[in-house]
Amino acid sequence: MKSEFDIRGMTCSACSQHVEKAVSNLEAVTKVSVNLLSNTMNVEYDGDKINELDIIDAVDKAGYQAISRDKKTLVSKDNSDDEISKENKDMKFRLIVSFLFMIPLMYIAMGDMVGLPVPNIFKGPENSVIFAFTQMLMTLPIIYVNRKYYINGFKSLIRKSPNMDSLIAIGSSAAFLYGLFVIYKLAFGLGHGYQDIVHKYMHSLYFESAAMILALITLGKYLEAKSKGKTTDAIKKLMDLSPKKAIRLEDGREVEIDIEEVRLGDILVVRPGSSIPVDGKVVDGKGSVDTSAITGESIPVEVFEGDEVIGSTILQLGSLKIEAEKIGEDTTLSKIIKLVQDANATKAPISKLADKIAAIFVPVVISISILATIIWLITGSGFEFALTIGISILVISCPCALGLATPVAIMVGTGKGASNGILIKSAEALETLHEVGAIVLDKTGTITIGRPEVTDIINMSEKSDEEFIAIAKAIESPSEHPLSLAIKNLDRGDDKELKVKNFTNHLGKGIEGTIDGILYHAGNLSYMKELKIDLLLAENKAEKLSNEGKTVLYFSDSHKILGLIAVADKIKKSSSKAVDYLHEEGISVYMLTGDNEKTAAAIANELKLDDVMAEVLPQDKEEMVRKTKEGGISVAMVGDGINDAPALARADVGIAIGAGTDIAIEAADIVLMKSDLLDVVNAIDLSKQTIKNIKQNLFWAFFYNILCIPLAAGVFYKPFGIMLNPMIASAAMSLSSLFVVTNALRLNRFKPIAKIDSHEDMQFKKEILKEETKMKKVFKIEGMSCSHCSGRVTQVLNDFDNVNAIVDLDNAKADVEMPEDMDVDILKKAIEDAGYSVISIEDAKA
Predict the structure, then answer these.
(1) Which of 10, 62, 84, 611 is the most exposed place for a label (fewest CB within 10 A)?
(2) Is 821 a catalytic residue?
(3) Catalytic option among 6, 290, 442, 465
(4) Percent share of the chain, pLDDT over 90
C-alpha cells in the first residue's frame, strides 16, 4: 500500500531525517520519502501487517505530528488548518523574546568588563548573588520559549540518534545548571565569609552562554524557515482552473449544472469565451480553442467535428457541442495536478553537509566531555574542576556557528539574487543548482517571446509595400485571432485607414472582406487552393518560410496572389547567448515543446541545442525530466506555462520565467523576474558562490570549535597552566558565529556574469523587418510567349532572398526590387539559364 501524510513540526533537514528514520524502522515499511519543503511524507508498506495508525504513532513518538491525506486522520491534539503559518509565527515570537532578554543579559554579564556603565547593584563581591540571580531570571524566559530544542534534543538522545537539537539542549542545559551551581557556591561563600570562593566564582557564570546558544540558533532557524518555499498554492491555483459549471443538453434544452454532475457521454454546450468543462470529442460545430493553459503554445488550435478537446482550455471563436469522455480525476488537468503533487512529494531531500558532520560531531563531543570529566576525577582533581572541564567542552563545542553556517549564507545569497531579479524560493534549490548537469527548456515564452509576431513580408502584387501592408492590416482588423493581432500590430503601411465591409471568418481556413469594392482573402494554403488562386509564384517562398518554422499567411484578391506574410513566435535575442554560456559551463541544454517538429527543429538548429522533443504533452515533459534524472544527472527545468508545472516540480530545480503563469511560478523553486535565460546562468553562478561560502563557514565553524576542545579539556593545564575559563569559552563561541555571519556577508559582492540588456528582454519590442536600402531595375526580356513563361521568370527571380519581381508579359519586362549591393548579373544569368534572353537592364523610373 501507499499512503501520503502531512507532517507538522519539522524545522530543519535533521527533523525530516529523524521522521524518515522513525518510520523506516517499522517492520513492514518498504519505502519512506519525507519532503521538508512541502512538509509531506509518502510511505509504501505492507497493509496486511501495519496500518496508517501505526505510522502515525511512529511519527508521534519521534516528536512530530502527521495527518493522513487520504482519510484526514487526526494525529495531534492541535488540528489547526494553518499549521505552517502558526509555526512560523511561533518561531518569530521565540526569536523576539530570545533577543529581548539576551541583549540586557549580555549587557549585565559583560558590560563592566568592556567599560560600559553598569548599575552598582551588579558590582562587587557583596552583590555577586544579585548579579548571578538576575542573569538566571533573564535566562529562564529564553529557555522556556525555546523548550522545543530540549524536547526534541533529549528525545533524540534517548533514542540513540543525537542531532543538532541534542547538542543545543545539552550545551545550554549544562551551562544553565552550572550557573545554578555557581549561585549556591556564591551564597555559601557570602554566608560563611569565604571571600576567596566568591572571587573565584562570581565571574564564572554560564547563563549568558546558555542564552546566546538558544538565541543565535533560533535566529538561524528563523532565517532558514523564511527561505522555505510553499508549493501548496500551486496546487490550489491548478484546481481553480477547472470550470465550476457546465451546460448540458437535456431533451434539447440547455441546463446549467455543477461540474461534479457531468457524466460520461453527456453532450455539453460550449459557448465563445467560455472554458471547455471536461475532456471530450466535438460532435457538432467548429471553433478556435486557446490551449495555452495545457500545452503552453500561443497559437490557438482550430477544432472541427470529431476532434478531441481538453478540459479547461478556452473556446475563443465558434460554438461547440462536445461529448464528455473523461471526467473527474481522469481529465488532463486533474492528471497535471496529480503529477505536481507526486513530483513534490517524491523530490529527493537535499543532504545538508552540516547534518552529515553533526551526526559524527555530536556524539564525539558528548563522549569527549564525559571522558574528560572522568579522567580529571580519576587523576585527583576536584568535582568542581572536572565539572567545569566537562561543561566547557560542551559550551565551546555548541554548534551556534554550525547552525548559522547554512541559513545565513542562504539568506544572503537569496537576498542578493532578489536584488538581481532572481527570486529563489527554497534553500534546497540554491544548494542543488550548482550541481545541475542538464537544463530542460520550454520553448514558448522561455526561449521565445511567447506570442506571434510578423517576421517576413513578401509583396508579390503591383501595389507598393505600404499599400499591400495596409490592405493586410485592414482585412485582419475585424478578427481577434492571435495571428491577425500580429499583423494588426504592424507599425508599417499606409496611414490611411481602410474600411472593411462584408467581413466573413471561415474557421480553420481564413477570412475575407471587401475594401473599396474589391473582395480580398487571407488565410492558409488550403483556403487559397479552395479559391483556385494560382500559387505558382508563391509556393517556393512559402515552403522556405515553413521550413524555418514560420506560419505563412496568404493574401489574394479574387483572381491572383498578392503576397505572403510570415508570422512566428520569435526567439529572444538573449536566448542564444544564454545557451552558449551554459555549454561553456559543461551543461547540456534540451528543449521541449508542444509545437510541431519543423518549428522545433528550426529553433534547435539556430541555438545549437543538444536535443529537442516536439509535440509533447505535459506528462511527456515530466517524463523526460524524470528519465534524465534516472540517468544520474541533476536536472533543472525552465518554463512559464501551466503545462510546465509537473516538469518544474519533478526537476531537481524548477525555474519559472517571471512573465509566465502564476501556477508555473508557484510550482518552481526559482523565478526569473526579467524573463531572460541569461539569469539562469547568473542563478547557477550565484549557487556556486553560495555553496562555496557555506563550505567555508562550516570549515571555520568546526575549526574554532575543534581548536578549542583540547584547551577546554585541560590538555594544556598541567604543562602550561592554561585552562579555558567560561568567559573565553563564551567569547570563542561568539567569535565563531561572528566570523560565519561576516563571511556570509561577502556574498553581497556577487555580480552577475551574464549581462542583460533591459531594453531587450522586458519590453519585448516588436522587430518588424528592418528596412534595407533597395534599388529598382527594369529587365527587358525576350522569349516569353505565354503566362507559363512569365510565371517561370517570376519564380526564378523571386527565389532569391529579398528580391521582389513583377513580370509584365505584354510589355516583355520584369520590374525587380532588389538589395542595393546585389549584382544584377546574377539575376540576368538566372533568367538566361531558364531559357530566356535579357535585352537590357535599366533603372526604374521614379
Answers:
(1) 611
(2) no
(3) 442
(4) 16
